[in-house]
Structures are given as C-alpha cells and as structure tokens.
Amino acid sequence: METVVSGIRSTGNLHIGNYFGAIKNFIRMQEEHNCFFFIADMHALTTHPKSEDFKQSVKNVVVEYLAVGLDPEKSTIYIQSDVPQISELYLLMNMYAYVGELERCTSFKDKIRKHPDNINAGLLTYPVLMASDIIIHKATKVPVGKDQEQHLEMARNFVNRFNHLYNVDYFPEPYAFNFGENLVKVPGLDGSGKMGKSEGEGNAIFLSEDPASIRKKIMRAVSDSGPTEANQPKTEAIQNLFTLMSLVSKPETISFFENEYNGCSIRYGDMKKQLAEDMIAFTAPLKDEIEKLHSNEKYLNEVIAYGGEKARESASKTLKEVREIIGFMH
Ligand code: TYM
Questions:
Q1: Spans in the chain with pLDDT lower than 70
Q2: How far does the centroid of ligand 1 lie from the alpha carbon of residue 267, in Å?
C-alpha cells in the first residue's frame, strides 16, 4: 500500500477533463492505497476570486468529489487551507526552490502570457505549494493529468535537494500516476488544446451541466469541412471529437464513425449529436447525485471536519520531523 495525494483547484465546477485526467483514478486508487484527496483552495487564490464565489467553489468541489464516488471512509478528503502544516512546509520548501527554475516552468510562462496584469509571487511559487501538498504526507503516487507532469518533476527536484542538503533519505520522490498508462489530456471543444475552465466559454463540459447546454456546446464544437479522400489524416479538431467519443461512447459507435470518416461519408452533425447524447448519458447520474448532495449541508460539514482532522494528523507528523532535520530548536 502506497501513499497517494492529489488535489483540484477550487476555481469552479469539475469538468470532463478533471474527471478523465484525474478523478477516475482517485476512485480506483482509494480501494488499494492510503489516499489523500484535497481541494486546493489556496492555489485558487492566485486568480483573486471574490469571497462569496470562492466559498461556493470550494463547496462545489467537495460535493462533486463525493458525487463521483470518493468515499470519506476510504480516503482522506479535506480542504487545503484546513491544514496549516502545508503552509509552513511551503515556506520552508521555498528555500530549496530556485527562482530560475520557477520562472522556466511552463504553467508560469502560460499564466503570465494570459494575465500580464496579475503576475503575483503566488503564481511563481505555485509548484512549491503543490510539492508541499504532496510531500506533507510523504506520498509517492500522484494521479494527475498530463498538464501536471512538469510540476511533479519540480517536486522531485525539491525533495532531492532537501534530502541532499541535510544528508537524509527523508522524502520519497513523488511520481505522476496513471496505472501504467500515459497521462491523459482531454481536449476541449474549441478545436485545439485541452479542456479547461479558463479556456473560454463553451470549451469545457461540466459534470453538473444540464443536457440542453451540453447539446448546444457540442453542436457548436469546432470541426472542419470534411474529408475529401479515403483514410485522410484527421485535423486536430476532428481528432478531438473522436478522443471525446472514446471517453463516453460505445466501441461500436466509435468504429461506426471512424468508418464513415474513412469512407468520406461522415456527417459531423450526426457525430456531434451522438457524442452529445453519450456525454449526457455519462453525466446524468453524476448531475443527479450532485444536486442531492448540495442540499445536505450537515453531511458536507461532517465530511470536511473529519477529513481535515485526519489530514492534520498525518501532516503534523511530517512537519515535526522536517523541523528536526532542519535543526529548529523545538
Ligand atoms: P487543476 O485544478 O487544473 O486540475 C485538476 C486535475 O485535473 C486534471 N486536468 C486534466 N486532465 C486531463 N485533461 C484535461 N483537459 C484536464 N484538465 C485538468 C489536472 O491534470 C489535474 O490532475 N496544480 C493542480 C492542483 C494541485 C495538485 C496538488 C494536484 C494542487 N496541489 C498536489 C496534485 C497534487 C491543478 O491546478 O489542477
């Protein structure tokens, strides 16, 4: 049994990318490992959310974690800011992270390109906080999507530097994990890139989304003018539609449209209609569960209090040992 940590930023509702990139594995891993799954509310502060929206987003992620099948008896489910030991470890780990490597991080470069008006220090040290989330429980396995791979590499650099500096073999190296398969990148509906909540309206499908809105988004997804010769390579936009289909549709549905594409008789309108129906069938039971849980405030508070306590217990043990290694008096 290994220790597993993963989290999701509370910047909105969970989407299909979060589900297939990370959460699907959370559900599977909680059966076999010692799992810590949290809501990264401190990471969400980099975008300066309003307090009211912020509270609601945290609650949404708690609800959606439970709705998809995370079990508070099997895994430790908590809110990052309920575990102050993470913040202290983050402060300490900042001493072992170099500004140069943080500036070279792809997600930081992306963020400053997209939001030149808000290049705060929290964005720069984002990977240090993420590493602290993981190593506070001395985790080795981190179920995440492809976009987090570089952050894991940085986490390994920080722990190796720490171990080397103090001549200890204390922190294990954490690795991104997907049951031996490649890490997943779920595409969005805009014809390029990945599905994400910050990639523009219409690009992501949410677990709590209503059917009419899913249909509308998928029918508007970017496509192309259609193949003109047999077995023509697919454009990125069309490949993306097939990739989304591979997540929620039956194998015979996928091969039907593959054949239509290869024979140049495909009608993208039909393919999108089918994809929309399969997406709705996939999300409908989750949406129902999400709605039910939202009204159960008492249960949600109990889950969070229970998880926070278990997480603090594990975190304070690590922090105490780290303080000893560093050489603090107490
Ligand atoms: P976040 O909140 O952006 O995304 C949460 C998880 O969902 C995955 N994901 C995707 N996977 C595949 N295709 C997509 N289109 C897609 N979009 C999102 C992400 O890879 C991620 O696994 N930094 C993290 C949160 C975090 C964390 C941690 C994760 C903070 N501390 C410690 C693991 C361990 C983030 O912003 O993920």
A1: none
A2: 34
